[in-house]
Specification:
The protein has 2 domains: 86 residues, no CATH class; 50 residues, no CATH class. It is 0% helix and 42% strand. A 7-stranded antiparallel beta sheet has the order 1-2-3-4-5-6-7, with no helix packed on it. A 4-stranded antiparallel beta sheet has the order 8-9-10-11, with no helix packed on it.
Length: 137
């Protein structure tokens, strides 16, 4: 993947193919039929609860545990959407076989409910603790 502002490109054999572009309420996704509009319906935390197509049909529905792990139910529709908990991008570490959420400065493991790195501002806010987020105490 290659990111350029709100544009996401897939890289294959040295070429860049547009995958998607974000806008205020969702993403434009390149598919075999052309460009699809997907709207994100979010909760009060910004977590994507539903992904809705332009015709109003529900493409994906998400529920979460309080610490961000997806609450998988067999009857819920799913899609290839990677933007989920807190509206952040879900990624996969192949060499460790874990999924994580990219919060920008750090990666979050929803399975364990913790960040995978220390806070990069740890030395500035040393009284708070090593693994707190956004100065939460």
């Amino acid at each position: 993947m290659c990111y350029l502002g709100s544009l996401v490109y897939r890289t294959q054999n040295g070429t860049f193919d547009l995958e998607s572009a974000s806008f205020g309420g969702g993403r434009l996704v390149v598919s075999s039929e052309g460009l699809e509009t997907r709207y994100f319906l979010t909760d009060h935390l910004g977590s994507v609860r539903q992904v809705v197509a332009a015709d109003g049909s529900v493409i994906e529905q998400n529920d979460y545990y309080p610490f961000g792990k997806e609450w998988a139910q067999p009857d819920m529709p799913t899609s290839d959407n990677r933007y989920i908990f807190f509206g952040k991008e879900k990624r996969h570490l192949r060499f460790q076989q874990i999924d994580y959420t990219d919060f920008g400065a750090r990666f979050y493991d929803a399975e364990g409910g913790h960040f995978l790195q220390q806070d990069p501002l740890l030395e500035k806010y040393f009284r708070i603790g090593q693994y707190n987020f956004a100065r939460e105490i």
